[in-house]
Amino acid sequence: MFKPLDPLLHSELRLAVVSLLISTEEAEFPFIKEQTGATAGNLSVQLDKLATAGYITVEKTFKGKRPCTLCRITPTGLKAFEQYVETLREYLNPNSQE
Amino acid sequence: MEENKNMTAERSLEIIRESIERSQRALSKNWALPQIWWGVLIVVFSFLIAYLWQNHGGPAWNALWFVMWVVGYIGNRFIDKKKETVPTTFVGKTIGQVWATFGIIASLVGWIIFIAACGLIPVEWVVPDQHVYINITSIICLCFGMASTMTGFILKNRVFLVCGIISGVGGYFLAMHFPWVEQLYVMAAVAVIGLIIPGLIVYFQNKK
What we know:
The complex is a heterodimer.
Chain A: H1 12-22, E1 27-28, H2 29-36, H3 40-52, E2 56-63, E3 66-73, H4 75-92
Chain B: H1 9-55, H2 64-82, H3 90-117, H4 123-126, H5 136-155, H6 158-177, H7 183-205
Helix pairs in contact in B: 1-2, 1-7, 3-5, 5-6, 5-7, 6-7
């Protein structure tokens, strides 16, 4: 029997965001928007969902005089991502489950 | 990208791979621009100093290298403002520290030798034995090659790696073979092989 995939990560945009954040210490909102090709509105909604679940932190700060939104992955998010990848591996290689 | 609950496992893995690769490409591309800038600057100053050295008064024109550091730093700040915002990563920080180490050591050695040559400190402090000969271009080429090779290893980029080894080892020995004004042409060649060529290749590879 396969484990269910984390529904929060099993979405194209949220998965792309978390994948970007695992290889970085922190990333600014415009960078994530450009890399994922998402609209600002949709991205904000998805970031809120991830932040509410404790997978990422969203910090509103300033870069000089300009507002800047910084996103970072949390240990909870990292663990959820690892679990998600592990489950994917089981889906792709069902024989390796034993 | 949309909300999609029916994604296959393959599609999920594809998204993860694409996202990680994209962020690595952005990082490499951002490193390429400063490399090209410093490479062009070294070539221009090498030829300028070589011309002045041969025609207008000798090796004292080497002091212009310090002007190059100032021009380079100002240009680098300008490039930093213009280039894409790239996230802070461990890889990015490490590469920055590698090149900062090269910059600090190369400029400190240069300054100390320059100050000794100007007579501001006793030459014996720098070269205690009269039979010892310091070839600053050789040392800088070696340090430079090491920094470039390390960048190649960190970025897992063969172009940086190979160009770093060729320019470091080649520049080290060639600068000793041509210790007079010709060493500036060696420096220019090292900048082309070690900075401009890999910078251009990486920049255009990631421009897609």
